[in-house]
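So, can you check these tokens?
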Amino acid sequence: MLDVVVPSYNEERRLPDTLVVLRAALADLGVPCRVTVVDNASTDGTARVAAEAPAGPVPVRVLHCAERGKGFAVRTGVLASDARYVGFCDADLATALDDLGQVLTLLSHDADVVVGSRAHPGSTVEDRHSPLRRWGAVAFRGAVRQIVRTVGETQCGYKFFRGDVAHRAFEPLRCGGFAFDVEVLGRAERAGARLVEIPVNWVDVPGSTFSTLRHGWRSFVDVAAISWRLRRVENVPAGSTVSPVVGLPVPPDVTSGAAVGLRP
């Protein structure tokens, strides 16, 4: 099964069309799929709209996350999933869904995480961002490069995981803001997961809740905190009984890869 988490904050107007398009794309895959809408403390009818989605081959379930933050909303959906594969996409569907079949093929072979990336040379990006936001994105990618080394971009809201890898990477998540992807991918990478970057067709859709002035500086602060936390993981002494992935006691003979169920 593929479970797609849609973090949603005040998406009452946009969500009905999003669910129609997303469910149609998933139904075309010909495998069991589910959509999980996580209402992230919305003040409108987001949860009601999701709950009223008509029956169909791709069911919709609604979860609630009272702790505000996209990262916490995605974490709620991921940890509630028992699917073999789980991923997330944004409610605005800025990233086209035409490569879901490729995503499943990669995950069923040798990929542990599939990362949609606007930085991929094969991507098509229609960007209407301001020069300030574009320059901020460049600086952000530079700051992130020391944390996530195997992909060129971390912030596109289009990522898919093997279920066991997702649970292990999201369970210890501390960053709930827009930089949460950095922490999740950084943890997965350090645990030995194979991250595969794919191109996307991405269109800048109006209505984003991200504000360059309000959230930009906070994202850099979050990245610094993530870097500090993951350096602590890397500096765990040899022979320690602390898991470098989730920070929980593990048997001495269990390696980090085995702890997360990654392929050798």
Remarks:
- The radius of gyration is 18 Å.
- Residues 238-264 have pLDDT under 50 and may be disordered.
